[in-house]
């Protein structure tokens, strides 16, 4: 019987805040990889970006990590890893992948059963770490100076990409337009999300700033956290405007 | 502080809720925010009224499951509740009659409890201390006056509005009554044809002041049909429906190819009724 390759999905991003759409990416990607018959997704990791990334309106990483933790309380396979956010400064995605890949190798080595008589488990193969992203991120590979070419290559060659479709994007087109991506397209998995769910964190922040409801767009526990800590309000403090219930 | 009289509003959503999804729940949030922001209304309650089994829609699973899922979905809401009246009727009930039922019920409640608190709680539900604390906002020491009995309005998506055109699905007089006597709050995808639709209908045009179109900026395509399809294919529906609903569906294996085949070949109740009534009144047809 053919053994499936174990896969860990890593998503990097602001998660400012985390939304149901981020969480959906994982579910859709897992279903897609399982559908191929070749992979077994064993873990998902959310890695919120470092504060020094300097993106507008980015709230402190300890909040973003805490919110992701709350969101993932009910997930049995996805977890948050604060390593990237705890580094002294921002680091390129490829370095985050390298770090987590090393961690995977270490824990795989520790888990190896020294008993030779035991039948090797189906996941005796080394787990592969793949970058999970939306099609919008794939498009950013084209943005001048945002990514180093050698990093893009390392990402798609050594690790692999699982890219979940997003409305208004043409991931196949982005791949064909880039020589590097074209060369390693076998390592780029395009997952289609048939249920459009365009919950952008930008919209969430705007709605919160205007006192509008964001219920059912992100987990209740995250909404409560945002309210309790006065995050994303228009004047930087919780004014009690609008009832979030 | 604005203490002028605002009309209290109850949002009523009718539908299959087969199953209820985060999109349904969002409709309520968007409707409430919109109506409250006009400054003329205060939304005090939202009612989910799942359709009865006699509707005979393809793939419609028994009402008691759909009710339970809606209740699980609204467990953490302070203002949404599920009403079983419609689903408990033996025959299918026209939407205008459901509106009428709830409006009359509100009128009766108002008479019985003139001093009733503005924020109606679900019956039998104790208000927790922190909810009461939230209600007594320090900025509003007095309860603003309200204008009489709360008004029920139909909350819906653009698909329901456009279904007014489906032959024999709605009685013209029902549509008229809905927009004239009650009102519609229609959540539509930004850039949809809802306005054109209203323009092209004399009845809707006449009562356009009673039709509120609310833009939905987040494309939210979580249709129950797609949820059921995903379930049949073993795909995850997490984060598209509340966790409790997803767990309930899984535990009871509610949706599969057998369930989707329910009512196949059966004519939808409103079509059945309207066509036969037309025949009855016009025997030569």
SSE arrangement:
The complex is a heterodimer of chains A (245) and B (285).
Chain A: E1 5-13, H1 20-35, E2 39-48, H2 61-71, E3 78-80, H3 83-86, H4 93-111, E4 128-134, H5 135-140, H6 149-159, E5 161-164, H7 171-177, H8 179-183, E6 188-191, H9 201-209, H10 220-228
Parallel strand pairs in A: 1-2, 1-4, 2-3, 4-5, 5-6
Helix pairs in contact in A: 2-10
Chain B: E1 7-15, H1 22-37, E2 41-50, H2 63-73, E3 80-82, H3 85-88, H4 95-112, H5 129-135, E4 151-157, H6 158-163, H7 172-182, E5 184-189, H8 194-199, H9 202-206, E6 211-216, H10 224-232, H11 243-252, H12 257-260, H13 269-281
Organism (chain B): Cricetulus griseus
Pfam families (chain B): CTP_transf_like (PF01467)
EC number (chain B): 2.7.7.1, 2.7.7.18
Describe the structure concisely for a colleague.
Chain B: It catalyses: nicotinate beta-D-ribonucleotide + ATP + H(+) = deamido-NAD(+) + diphosphate; beta-nicotinamide D-ribonucleotide + ATP + H(+) = diphosphate + NAD(+). Chain A is α/β, with parallel strands linked by helices and 245 residues long.
Polypeptide structure, described:
The complex is a heterodimer of chains A (245) and B (285). By secondary structure, chain A is of the alpha/beta class. Chain A has one domain (5-108, 125-229): Rossmann fold (3-Layer(aba) Sandwich), CATH 3.40.50.620. Chain A is 40% helix and 15% strand. Chain A has ten helices and six strands; from the N terminus they run E-H-E-H-E-H-H-E-H-H-E-H-H-E-H-H. Chain A has helices at residues 20-35, 61-71, 83-86, 93-111, 135-140, 149-159, 171-177, 179-183, 201-209, 220-228, and strands spanning 5-13, 39-48, 78-80, 128-134, 161-164, 188-191. Chain A has a six-stranded parallel beta sheet with strand order 3-2-1-4-5-6, with helices on both faces. In chain A, helix 2 runs antiparallel to helix 10. Residues 236-245 of chain A have low confidence and may be disordered. With 285 residues, chain B is α/β, with parallel strands linked by helices. Chain B has a single domain, classed as Rossmann fold. Chain B is 42% helix and 14% strand. Chain B contains 13 helices and six strands. Chain B has helices spanning 22-37, 63-73, 85-88, 95-112, 129-135, 158-163, 172-182, 194-199, 202-206, 224-232, 243-252, 257-260, 269-281, and strands spanning 7-15, 41-50, 80-82, 151-157, 184-189, 211-216. Chain B has a six-stranded parallel beta sheet with strand order 3-2-1-4-5-6. In chain B, strand 2 (41-50), helix 2 and strand 3 form a beta-alpha-beta unit. In chain B, helix 2 runs antiparallel to helix 11. Chain B is globular, with a radius of gyration of 20 Å. The chains are: A alpha/beta (245), B alpha/beta (285). At the A-B interface, helix 1 of A face helix 1 and helix 10 of B. Chain A: Pathway: Cofactor biosynthesis; NAD(+) biosynthesis; NAD(+) from nicotinamide D-ribonucleotide: step 1/1; Cofactor biosynthesis; NAD(+) biosynthesis; deamido-NAD(+) from nicotinate D-ribonucleotide: step 1/1. Chain A: InterPro entries: Cyt_trans-like, Euk_NMN_adenylyltrnsfrase, NadD/NMNAT, NMNAT_euk, Rossmann-like_a/b/a_fold.
């Amino acid at each position: 019987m053919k053994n499936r390759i174990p896969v860990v999905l890593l998503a990097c991003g602001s998660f400012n805040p985390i939304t149901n759409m981020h969480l959906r990416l994982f579910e859709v990607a897992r279903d897609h990889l399982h559908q191929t018959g070749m992979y077994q997704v064993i873990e998902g990791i959310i890695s919120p970006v470092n504060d020094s990334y300097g993106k507008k309106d980015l709230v402190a990483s300890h909040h973003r990590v805490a919110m992701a933790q709350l969101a993932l309380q009910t997930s049995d396979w996805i977890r948050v890893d604060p390593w990237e956010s705890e580094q002294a400064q921002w680091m390129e995605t490829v370095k985050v992948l390298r770090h987590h890949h090393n961690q995977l190798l270490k824990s795989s080595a520790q888990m190896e059963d020294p008993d030779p008589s035991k039948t090797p488990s189906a996941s005796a193969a080394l787990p592969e770490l793949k970058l999970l992203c939306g099609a919008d991120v794939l498009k950013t590979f084209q943005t001048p100076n945002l990514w180093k070419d050698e990093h893009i290559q390392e990402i798609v060659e050594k690790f692999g990409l699982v890219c979940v479709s997003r409305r208004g994007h043409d991931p196949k087109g982005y791949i064909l337009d880039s020589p590097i991506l074209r060369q390693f397209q076998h390592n780029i998995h395009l997952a289609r999300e048939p249920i459009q769910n365009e919950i952008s964190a930008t919209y969430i922040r705007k709605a919160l700033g205007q006192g509008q409801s964001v219920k059912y767009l992100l987990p209740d526990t995250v909404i409560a956290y945002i309210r309790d800590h006065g995050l994303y309000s228009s004047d930087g403090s919780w004014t009690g405007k609008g009832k979030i219930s | 502080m604005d203490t002028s009289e605002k009309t209290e509003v109850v949002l009523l959503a009718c539908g299959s809720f087969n199953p209820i999804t985060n999109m349904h729940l969002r409709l309520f949030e968007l409707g409430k925010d919109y109506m409250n922001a006009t400054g003329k209304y205060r939304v005090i309650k939202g009612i989910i009224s799942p359709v009865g089994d006699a509707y005979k829609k393809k793939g419609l699973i028994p009402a008691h499951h759909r009710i339970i899922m809606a209740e699980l979905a609204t467990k953490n809401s302070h203002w949404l509740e599920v009403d079983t009246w419609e689903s408990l009727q033996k025959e299918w009930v026209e939407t205008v009659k459901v509106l009428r039922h709830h409006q009359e019920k509100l009128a009766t409640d108002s008479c019985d409890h003139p001093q009733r608190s503005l924020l109606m709680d679900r019956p039998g539900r104790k208000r927790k201390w922190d909810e009461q604390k939230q209600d007594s906002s320090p900025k509003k020491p007095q309860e603003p006056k309200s204008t009489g009995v709360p008004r029920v309005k139909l909350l819906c998506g653009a698909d329901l509005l456009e279904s007014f055109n489906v032959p024999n699905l709605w009685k013209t007089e029902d549509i008229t009554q809905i927009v004239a006597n009650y009102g519609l709050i229609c959540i539509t995808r930004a850039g949809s044809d809802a306005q054109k639709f209203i323009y092209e209908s004399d009845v809707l045009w006449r009562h356009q002041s009673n039709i509120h179109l609310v833009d939905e900026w987040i494309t939210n395509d979580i249709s129950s049909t797609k949820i059921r399809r995903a379930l049949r294919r073993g795909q995850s529906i997490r984060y598209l429906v509340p966790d409790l609903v997803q767990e309930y569906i899984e535990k009871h294996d509610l949706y599969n190819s057998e369930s989707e085949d329910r009512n196949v070949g059966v004519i939808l109740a409103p079509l059945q009724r309207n066509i036969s009534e037309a025949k009855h009144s016009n025997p030569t047809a």
